[in-house]
Amino acid sequence: MKIDFKGQVALVTGATRGIGKQIAEDLEKAGAKVLLTGTDKTLIEKLNKQAKAKKKKKQYYCVDFTNDSSVSVFLQQIENVPRIDVCVNNAGINNLDFVEDSKEKDWDDILAVNLKGPYLLTRLLARKMKKNRYGRIINISSIMSIVSRPKRSIYSTTKAGIVGFTKAVSNELAGHRILVNAVSPGIIITDLTRKNLTDKERRSLARQIPAGRLGVPSEISSVVLFLASKLNTYLTGKNIVVDGGFIDI
Ligand SMILES: NC(=O)c1ccc[n+]([C@@H]2O[C@H](COP(=O)([O-])OP(=O)(O)OC[C@H]3O[C@@H](n4cnc5c(N)ncnc54)[C@H](OP(=O)(O)O)[C@@H]3O)[C@@H](O)[C@H]2O)c1
């Protein structure tokens, strides 16, 4: 058995850093043509130039899910791609605050990136995938969809929401050979965790994780690649937790 994406097109949002970047690299290595997003226009132009020079099967798009006009340009670009086999809704943000201190703008922004972006892409791609009678959608949620900690009320709302969305959409699409799952990482070493957890907090959390350490992006990517591949034929509507045994479910 081999994971092989030759001849397939895979879209990964938030693929310039962290977990998304790892998933993109692994999909590319496994033969997929990858369509990737980031928010920094200058970086996207640079990455596209590099990809072209190296004759890579790779295209970067600039999209900021908190900006309506940026989103509509991006959706039009994706509409024009004839076939997309795999979509990984990975882009995500988390601004920490106690609920009473939180700002309405944070609510709007976190919902826009973590929930509305995946909804808009799924709506567009469901039509395309149905036409092609094939598709795999993976939504990156979090253990914060199941458990939570202080200052994560908005983030947890979105991550639980995306699991509900995953289940609902999987019911509608399973009959069209389109499988939709969520992956919920535990604590993975990326910019997001470096921003939101101090070294001391990370060390203390590592002691509470049965695996004895935080995870790394490749440990999420390998699960995503299975779900996104043709090896997955019957797993849909699930929230797969990848957390070193951290939470009890
Ligand atoms: N790291 C963890 O421990 C952990 C745990 C559970 C779940 N997750 C989830 O895993 C996913 C990836 O997390 P990560 O740790 O890899 O995060 P990260 O290193 O902070 O990377 C986030 C990615 O999302 C993109 N992004 C940020 N704001 C955006 C916006 N407004 N519009 C569109 N894209 C935007 C970023 O693009 P730019 O580079 O252009 O800013 C970047 O590519 C997220 O959904 C996160 O909630 C992470």
Could you explain the architecture of this structure?
The chain is an alpha/beta fold. The chain has one domain: NAD(P)-binding Rossmann-like Domain (Rossmann fold, 3-Layer(aba) Sandwich). 46% of the residues lie in helices and 15% in strands. It has eight helices and seven strands. The protein has a seven-stranded parallel beta sheet, with helices on both faces. Helix 2 links the parallel strand 2 and strand 3. Helix 1 crosses helix 8, helix 3 packs parallel to helix 4 and helix 4 runs parallel beside helix 5. The radius of gyration is 17 Å and the shape is globular. The model has no long low-confidence stretch (mean pLDDT 97). Bound molecules: NADP nicotinamide-adenine-dinucleotide phosphate. NADP nicotinamide-adenine-dinucleotide phosphate (NAP) binds next to helix 1 and helix 6.
Number of helices: 8
List the uncertain runs: none
* Total domain units: 1
Helix content: 40-55%
> Radius of gyration, Cα only, in angstroms?
17 Å
Structural class: alpha/beta
Per DSSP, what share of the residues sits in E-state strands of 2 or more residues? 5-15%
Mean pLDDT: 97
Query: Architecture, according to CATH?
Result: 3-Layer(aba) Sandwich
CATH class: Alpha Beta
CATH superfamily: NAD(P)-binding Rossmann-like Domain
Small molecules bound in the structure, each named once = NADP nicotinamide-adenine-dinucleotide phosphate
Largest sheet: 7 strands, parallel
CATH topology: Rossmann fold
Distance between the termini: 30 Å
Which sequence of SSEs, written as H and E, runs from N to C?
EHEHEHEHEHEHHHE
- Shape field: globular
Oligomer designation: single chain
